[in-house]
Amino acid sequence: MSRPLKTVIVNGSLHRPSRTQVLLDALRDTLNDQLALDVQNIELVSLLPELGAALSTDALPAHAHQAIKAIEQADFLIVGSPIFRAGIPGLLKHLFDLVDMNALNGTPVLLAATGGSQRHALVIEHQLRPLFSFFQALTLPIGVYATPEDIQDGEVTNAALQQHIQRTVDLAVPVLHSIQTRLPLQNSVLEAQAA
């Protein structure tokens, strides 16, 4: 038996509520059906305005510094971004500029994005995947992209997108399960220390 994956979900949206959060919630729920996850949500909007003014982690308030530490210590990241004018928000990139460059080495990352049309779907491949390649993270093979037509009333309503989410999770689970089985059991470590 292994411990739940310490999963950090990063929502790069500057709005609340957001379609990006709906997509991230759908991914989380589908993953939760197959894996034990210990989830922490980080919303970019909750780190404003201090994040934008910080040139180093030393300049961050405690809650923003804790968000960076959570990202650095995660077993698994799910990162979602809205796409504006064919790009991710600069503040999302800035958040990861403050992450230690060695902290995500080998960490699996599931990428997701939302945009106004299918024209921006490749931003996952052209901006998000290279960002995490810099960190030598293990980006999972399929990203998930959604448009306003796919999400209605706070839910993923498009059947094709729901199937794509399921297929993405089905491909991710063997990788995540392999990592999960190698994680030390927190209780076993505590019991060994107490003995």
From TrEMBL:
The organism of origin for this protein: Alcaligenes faecalis
Domain NADPH-dependent FMN reductase-like residues, every copy: 6-149
Stored Pfam families: FMN_red
The protein's name: FMN reductase
InterPro entries (alphabetical): Flavoprotein-like_sf, FMN_Rdtase-like_dom, FMN_Rdtase_MsuE-like, NAD(P)H-dep_FMN_reductase
Protein family (similarity comment): Belongs to the SsuE family.
Domain of life: Bacteria
Keyword presence, Oxidoreductase: yes
GO molecular function terms attached to this record: oxidoreductase activity
Flavoprotein among keywords: yes
Keywords: Flavoprotein, FMN, Oxidoreductase
